[in-house]
Design brief:
single chain, 393 residues, alpha/beta, Arc Repressor Mutant, subunit A, Endonuclease Iii, domain 2, Endonuclease III, domain 1, 3 domains, four-stranded mixed beta sheet, two-stranded parallel ribbon, 19 helices, 48% helix, 7% strand, globular
């Protein structure tokens, strides 16, 4: 596949790359850990390509990819692909995969049967493992038998695959997967007007940081969101993503997250083998037991509860405290008026924003936070972001 040019572009999962030639798109590269690595991986495949502004057809493809990964409904079937140098079986597999709608999945075996080769599931998997057109040929929508997530060769592995499936499911209105664009229980523009008017110093922080870009995160259920929070505690982001993806892979429909009944049936050995500590294993089992007994509200029920009632209810679970529930209120339920006064990043951001010599105490934060009501969530987001200003070139 001859690629004459390439370009990099930002998406919700990171900075991707696309290469093209006269016969269409030659490659779509998912993000590596760093932009330089993404660029290098693409150029290993297409050393002749030169970076250039994309032509209209490629620009439309980029826009649709960005929109799809941002949670919008998009059909990429019209994107022209350069498959001239691919083997006939590989082309047929890719054409079959392109027929899978966003939000749906097919197994390797189902695609093999569709192609008239019911015993060729492994060959289908091998072809998809070499897929040069990530997202456009949606190999992430192809799973193992029984709905298990299977492998994924992109950076982040199955964690990236799970994230992409969850985003697409949300765009197609599957219940309980995403709290949606309407998930914020407030108007961000109105929040910014209120904050600027009530606190001039915070207004300067808002100007320095820029637009409000906080995003809600997908979840299949309150149980799944809390289970993920438990796994992530006291771990780096990359380590937590890997362990959580391994835990999800133990479930038949991995991209929808764990379920309480199945988790209770899994042995300690299998859960520990996924990377869970003994303490986190006990916390997850307590969470699952309470969920099975009706002690954990559904997403619909949680939306009807006030913040403090939800904090009190969920803090009864082993391993879940106030901070964990506050993060859920902000990033899963989109609540407008949450101020995590015990969060180190909030305290450090406050000290920088308001030129304090030391970290503020709870009382000082709460007192200043009165000015930010009823949009303390937005103020909190800006306090976190102000710390990034220290590292900008």
């Amino acid at each position: 596949m001859a690629a004459q040019h390439f370009a990099l572009f930002d998406t919700s999962i990171g900075r991707c790359a696309i290469a093209w030639g006269e016969d269409g798109v030659a490659r779509v590269q998912l993000p590596e850990a760093r932009e330089a690595a993404t660029r290098a991986r693409l150029l290993r495949r297409h050393p002749e390509a030169r970076e250039a502004p994309p032509p209209p057809a490629v620009r439309r493809a980029i826009e649709d990819i960005v929109a799809l990964l941002g949670g919008a409904a998009r059909d990429l079937a019209s994107v022209a692909l350069d498959m001239e140098h691919l083997a006939p079986f590989q082309r047929r597999v890719y054409e079959a995969a392109r027929q899978i709608p966003a939000g749906a999945t097919r197994s390797y075996g189902e695609i093999a049967t569709q192609l008239g080769s019911p015993g060729a599931a492994r060959a289908v998997g091998q072809a998809l493992g070499r897929n040069p057109f990530a997202i456009v040929v949606p190999c992430h929508r192809v799973v193992s038998a029984g709905g298990r997530v299977g492998g994924f060769s992109a950076n982040g592995g199955i964690a990236t695959k799970l994230r992409m499936l969850a985003i697409e499911a949300a765009a197609n209105g599957q219940p309980g997967v995403w709290d949606g664009d309407a998930g914020f229980a407030f108007d961000p523009k109105a929040a910014l007007r209120r904050l600027r008017g009530s606190d001039a110093a915070l207004g300067r922080v808002i100007d320095a940081v820029g637009p409000f870009r906080m995003e809600l995160r997908p979840t299949t259920s309150l149980f799944a969101a809390l289970a993920e929070s438990i796994v992530y505690q006291q771990l780096s982001g990359s380590a937590a993503r890997t362990i959580y993806a391994r835990v999800c892979a133990l479930f038949p429909r991995a991209h929808e997250g764990p379920t309480p009944g199945r988790l209770l049936r899994l042995s300690d050995e299998r859960l520990r083998a996924a990377g869970l500590s003994r303490s986190k294993l006990l916390s997850l089992r307590d969470l699952a037991r309470r969920a099975e007994e009706g002690g954990i509200p559904t997403l619909a029920e949680a939306r009807q509860m006030d913040d403090e009632a939800l904090v009190a209810r969920l803090s009864e679970v082993r391993g879940i405290g106030r901070w964990t529930v506050e993060m859920l209120l902000m990033f899963r339920l989109g609540r407008p008026d949450v101020l995590p006064v015990d969060d180190y990043g909030i305290r450090k951001g406050f000290a920088r924003a308001f030129r304090k010599r030391g970290l503020p105490g709870r009382q000082e934060l709460e007192k200043r936070g009165v000015r930010w009501k009823p949009y303390r969530t937005v103020a909190s987001w800006y306090l976190w972001r102000v710390l990034e200003l220290e590292t900008r070139p």
